[in-house]
């Protein structure tokens, strides 16, 4: 998975040197008009902060974005209508708020490569530079917790629903950007616990297995 490219002068590229307990993580999720980064657009971004093994619930944000491109076929999944009760921001304004929220943090997401590609294309449309944030994928981290055995048939990918089932987590707000970000954050904490039971955790190790 390709990370965001380092933005010269930004401190975000240096966060990997911090201790895991001190590092600031921003867990993110996007809801989109579809699954084609070339043609589809982001409808909402959900982000929340996590540090020292705690989710900082009060430091969360869900942004809804005004988009001309819209595909009604995706509405049953995310429930976002083209005209809805939530205030829609222009895409550039939403991306600016997202970048400010994530400054100096390690980004975490489930199958985060898709979210990153959607964000990259959005930033490119407005001539905005990519940040230098390191990124972690909870799917890759979860697979590192599984036993290595010829008797265990590991899947290529594990869904967020499968992680929720594994850790007995509620899926009440599934398929909302902030709801999925929260679900991913709780799963991430469980995964860190499993990894820590195997060996001392370092950010260098997390970034090696999860990005």
TrEMBL record:
Coiled-coil boundaries:
none
**Which InterPro entries does this chain map to?**
Ribonucl_H (IPR013520), RNaseH-like_sf (IPR012337), RNaseH_sf (IPR036397)
Protein name from the UniProt record: 3'-5' exonuclease
Q: Which GO terms describe its molecular function?
A: exonuclease activity
Q: Which UniProt keywords apply?
A: Exonuclease, Hydrolase, Nuclease
Residue ranges annotated for the Exonuclease domain, each copy included = 24-197
**Transmembrane region positions?**
none
Superkingdom assignment? Bacteria
């Amino acid at each position: 998975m390709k990370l965001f490219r380092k933005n010269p002068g930004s401190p975000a590229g240096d966060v990997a040197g911090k201790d895991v307990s001190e590092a600031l993580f921003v867990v993110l999720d996007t809801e989109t008009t579809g699954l084609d980064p070339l043609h589809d657009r982001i409808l909402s971004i959900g982000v929340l902060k996590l540090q020292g093994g705690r989710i900082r619930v009060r430091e969360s944000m869900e942004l809804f974005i005004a988009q001309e491109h819209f595909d009604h076929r995706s509405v049953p999944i995310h429930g976002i209508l083209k005209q809805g009760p939530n205030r829609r921001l222009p895409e550039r304004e939403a991306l600016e708020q997202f970048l400010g929220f994530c400054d100096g943090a390690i980004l975490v997401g489930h199958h985060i490569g898709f979210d990153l590609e959607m964000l990259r294309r959005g930033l490119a449309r407005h001539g905005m530079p990519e940040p230098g944030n390191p990124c972690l994928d909870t799917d890759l981290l979860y697979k590192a917790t599984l036993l290595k055995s010829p008797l265990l048939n590991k899947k290529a990918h594990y869904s967020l629903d499968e992680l929720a089932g594994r850790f007995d987590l509620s899926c009440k707000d599934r398929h909302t950007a902030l709801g999925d970000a929260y679900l991913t954050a709780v799963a991430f904490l469980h995964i860190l616990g499993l990894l820590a039971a195997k060996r001392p955790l370092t950010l260098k190790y997390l970034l090696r297995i999860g990005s």
